[in-house]
């Protein structure tokens, strides 16, 4: 029997069926006739404008931002120099700026009526510079987190080369230590890209970096697309973002050739095109009312994002270096008719600007590093003049971090370098503000300071293009991000945009030689007379330097300074030296002569292209973690035996004022071997003065990344130190003839090593000469290190919590008053600054200047210079060179630490030449 309770629904069902039949009979004509059904919503959605309406943008002045946090007080910042980011970064407004409800309400003159907002906070900027918040177009914040741990690395999938359905938001770690650091550098917005191991790595997402009350990844999103299903009240259709990659990275991961990669792209886009064509046909028929025989709207969850690329609804970022790959990309763009928003890394783009203009749908923006080149073959022709050349050809230029490849905190430094190498200052500022924002489709709300834009800005302690510029405060969505920031007092010259040198010849040479211009200097063995010299700094054996200041003339013979004197006195001062009337005259235009710098920390001289093994000396066999061939016996490897001369990174270092490099044998394991010092300007190992010192110190490493435990490494070191049968380098370490240099970052390991040194010193007639290299956490033991007489070489000079061993950094201003350099110096530690990457050695002088600027006057010129000269020599066992054979770097237009000066040459007493560049 039927349950009567269930039968109650039948009348309702009968009515529904009847109504359905009535509807169908009245609306479904016979075959071939039109029906009155409207097209499905997908048809309208795929044609909706992605550009916000003028009415919507205007409404933000009253409604505020979708990211506004209730309770945030309005802020009036008075008396500022405002770089708005508009007009290609050139617009400057003097006055005030008003923030409320997460948006900018006014810039420049603020009417009194607007300043009557309740709870208004008023801040006097004191004439400081304000810029838009920095926008990083290429970041892996949150997907390659700090510290790097296996469970927090979600940048790449290894499932397949084509993965447009993956989304970076699904792997975004909200506990990345680097968010706070990036904000401290003025970064407010970032595009979080998947890695570059795949041809199509997946979808990217824009985020704001500030913490949110919800503490979720979704709460950080800027302009989240409706495809995420967030039930956002803002139902506008928004741009989506995606990552592609060509060249070496996907080839290495999947064993592809370039032909394979091109086919993978074409096959994927062909699948997307089939779906797009089916959708277009469906909507065309639906709009005509031709419903007969039609199934559901054609969709594919896997391919829908790539279909949107074909519709121009995705801002596409493409990792692509070389002309061959760029050419294939342009052809792909035109074959399938999709636009490219930006090309990243883009090392050879400056060589093929006309090719890039063939991209379908308009010019792509070009996202570059400033000087990070040559780590792999496809990056070998990258040039510091790329931004300038591209801008000259009308292509938008973006400077990016590729965080954590470069610490996003220092993205403004990329813009500073681009400007130094002759990119227009307005475009340099725009390259990290409005240009990336425009390229990513959010330029209507971030990257510029104007009414109705997001309240994201940075107050700087100096002009943002001045070296070492540091935020005083950072606002994101109108909310201040720095609590009790440590502020610096920068010298007056740093308040103006640097007047950078002329590089016209170098720019033309870069183009003419397709990125590989000659780098060797013009060598002069005779006499050179330098005029208009403002200072001569001399380096004494004890490590002290002294300036001799005046409008001077300096006579150099055979690479050695013979004499120097104020104008008019040279003949009297140099009479005993035999004044050279035939000397070549060089105008330094107020420049200086200063001692050459010494570098350590990279593989300079042992590696030409880091990721090309055939161009490197290769890693050593480690007796603790490897099976060492019997033929080696107990031999300790010497770096001097694997030196390579005249490499491009080495010569760029020389042209940057680094005349001596100290290098340890390559490797990451326990026993590395004997370091060596060599002249960066030498042509080969047999040239005069090429080998500065064949053996400097014995190098080992102790860390938690090795196959052997830390305690095992310490046990091995104890055995070697206390062995009564030690010979060779270990016996020299025991007798304090040479230092033992230990690459170590973790403070706990350092404490164990200090205890070991105490043990050794108590049982020996000599005190162990120990140096910590790397030493990120050394500040935690500054007093103990100083008391033990241990030297420290900080590498990198600016800390980053890269791994667990590095995590406890002292970040420096604005997050901390002190830096590691300052802390160690205060405790009497012999400190030097190293450089980790070969390409970056050329920038050593800027690192030293930055360290001095961050000290707020605590580090003077002499102390700063010692950080990469006499202090380095002492730490690494380089015998102090006498004044007679000292190398002097010749700076034109300013001092050794200026962005306004240029290295014009080197006077090498060691090699008896003057090299002019």
Automatic annotation (TrEMBL):
It comes from the Eukaryota. Residues 390-465 form the Amidohydrolase-related domain. One of its GO terms (biological process) is purine nucleobase catabolic process. GO terms for molecular function: allantoinase activity. InterPro entries: Amidohydro-rel, DHOase/Allantoinase_Hydrolase, Metal-dep_hydrolase_composite, Metal_Hydrolase. One of its GO terms (cellular component) is cytoplasm. PANTHER family: ALLANTOINASE (PTHR43668), AMIDOHYDROLASE 3 DOMAIN-CONTAINING PROTEIN (PTHR43668:SF5). This is Amidohydrolase-related domain-containing protein. It comes from Mycena rosella (Pink bonnet).
């Amino acid at each position: 029997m039927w349950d009567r309770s269930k039968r109650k629904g039948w009348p309702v069902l009968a009515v529904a069926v009847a109504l359905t039949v009535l509807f169908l009979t009245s609306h479904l004509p016979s075959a071939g006739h039109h029906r009155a059904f409207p097209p499905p919503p997908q048809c309208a959605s795929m044609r909706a404008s992605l550009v916000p309406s003028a009415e919507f943008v205007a409404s933000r002045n009253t409604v505020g931002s979708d990211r506004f946090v209730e309770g945030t007080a309005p802020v009036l910042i008075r008396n500022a120099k405002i770089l708005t980011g508009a007009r290609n970064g050139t617009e400057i407004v003097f006055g005030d700026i008003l923030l409320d409800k997460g948006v900018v309400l006014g810039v420049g003159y603020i009417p009194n009526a607007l300043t009557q907002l309740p709870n208004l906070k008023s801040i006097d900027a004191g004439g400081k510079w304000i810029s838009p918040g920095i926008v990083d177009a290429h970041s892996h914040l949150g997907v390659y987190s700090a510290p790097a741990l296996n469970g927090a690395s979600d940048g790449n999938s290894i499932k397949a080369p084509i993965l447009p359905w993956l989304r970076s938001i699904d792997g975004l770690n909200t506990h990345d230590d680097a968010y706070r650091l990036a904000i401290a550098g003025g970064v407010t917005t970032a595009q979080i890209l998947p890695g570059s191991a795949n041809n199509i790595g997946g979808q990217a997402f824009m985020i704001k970096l500030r913490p949110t009350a919800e503490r979720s990844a979704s709460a950080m999103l800027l302009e989240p697309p409706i495809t995420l299903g967030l039930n956002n009240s803002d139902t506008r259709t928004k741009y989506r973002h995606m990552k592609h990659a060509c060249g070496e990275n996907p080839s290495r991961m999947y064993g592809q050739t370039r032909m394979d990669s091109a086919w993978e792209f074409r096959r994927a886009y062909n699948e997307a095109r089939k779906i797009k064509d089916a959708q277009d046909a469906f909507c065309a028929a639906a709009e005509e009312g031709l419903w007969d025989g039609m199934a559901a709207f054609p969709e594919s969850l896997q391919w829908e994002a790539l279909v949107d690329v074909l519709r121009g609804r995705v801002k596409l970022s493409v990792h692509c270096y070389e002309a061959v790959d760029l050419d294939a990309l342009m052809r792909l763009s035109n074959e399938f008719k999709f636009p490219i928003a930006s090309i990243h890394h883009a090392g050879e783009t400056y060589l093929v600007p006309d090719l890039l203009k063939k991209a379908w749908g308009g010019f792509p923006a070009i996202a570059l590093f400033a000087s990070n080149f040559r780590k792999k073959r496809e990056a070998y022709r990258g040039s510091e003049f790329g931004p300038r050349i591209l801008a000259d050809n009308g292509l938008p230029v973006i400077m990016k971090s590729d965080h954590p490849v470069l610490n996003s905190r220092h993205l403004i430094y990329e813009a500073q370098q681009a400007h130094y190498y002759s990119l227009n200052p307005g475009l340099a500022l725009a390259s990290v503000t409005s240009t990336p924002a425009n390229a990513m489709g959010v330029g209507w709300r971030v990257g510029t300071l104007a009414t109705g834009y997001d309240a994201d800005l940075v107050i700087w302690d100096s002009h943002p293009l001045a070296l070492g510029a540091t935020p005083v405060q950072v606002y994101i969505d109108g909310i201040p991000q720095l609590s009790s920031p440590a502020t610096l007092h920068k010298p007056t010259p740093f308040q103006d945009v640097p007047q950078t040198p002329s590089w016209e010849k170098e720019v033309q040479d870069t183009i003419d030689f397709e990125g590989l211009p000659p780098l060797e200097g013009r060598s002069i063995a005779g006499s050179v007379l330098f005029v208009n010299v403002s200072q001569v700094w001399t380096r004494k054996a004890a490590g002290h330097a002294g300036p001799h200041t005046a409008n001077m003339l300096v006579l150099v013979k055979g690479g050695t300074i013979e004499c120097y004197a104020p104008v008019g006195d040279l003949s009297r001062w140099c009479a005993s030296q035999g004044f050279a009337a035939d000397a070549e005259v060089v105008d330094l235009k107020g420049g200086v002569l200063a001692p050459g710098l010494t570098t350590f920390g990279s593989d300079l001289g042992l590696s030409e292209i880091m990721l090309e093994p055939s161009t490197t000396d290769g890693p050593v066999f480690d007796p603790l973690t490897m099976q060492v061939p019997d033929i080696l016996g107990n031999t300790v490897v010497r770096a001097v035996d694997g030196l390579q001369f005249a490499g491009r990174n080495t010569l760029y270092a020389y042209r940057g004022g680094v005349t001596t490099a100290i290098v340890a044998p390559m490797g990451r394991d326990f026993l590395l071997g004997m370091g060596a010092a060599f002249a960066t300007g030498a042509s080969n190992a047999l040239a005069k003065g090429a080998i500065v010192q064949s053996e400097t110190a014995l190098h080992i490493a102790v860390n938690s990344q090795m196959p052997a435990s830390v305690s095992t490494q310490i046990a091995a070191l104890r055995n070697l130190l206390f062995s009564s049968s030690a010979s060779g380098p270990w016996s020299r370490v025991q007798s304090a003839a040479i230092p033992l240099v230990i690459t170590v970052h973790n403070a706990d390991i350092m404490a164990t090593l200090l205890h070991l040194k105490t043990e050794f010193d108590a049982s020996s007639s000599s005190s162990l000469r120990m140096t910590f290299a790397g030493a990120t956490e050394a500040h935690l033991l500054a007093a103990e290190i100083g008391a033990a007489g241990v030297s420290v070489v900080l590498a990198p000079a600016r800390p980053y919590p890269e791994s667990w061993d590095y995590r406890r950094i002292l970040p420096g201003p604005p997050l901390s008053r002190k830096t590691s350099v300052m802390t160690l110096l205060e405790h009497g530690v012999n400190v030097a600054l190293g450089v980790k990457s070969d390409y970056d050695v050329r920038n050593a002088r800027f690192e030293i200047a930055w360290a001095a600027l961050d000290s707020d006057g605590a580090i003077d010129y002499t102390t700063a210079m010692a950080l990469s000269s006499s202090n380095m020599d002492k730490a690494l066992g380089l015998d102090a060179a006498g004044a007679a054979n000292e190398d002097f770097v010749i700076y034109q237009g300013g001092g050794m630490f200026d962005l306004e000066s240029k290295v014009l040459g080197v006077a090498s007493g060691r090699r008896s030449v003057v090299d002019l560049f």
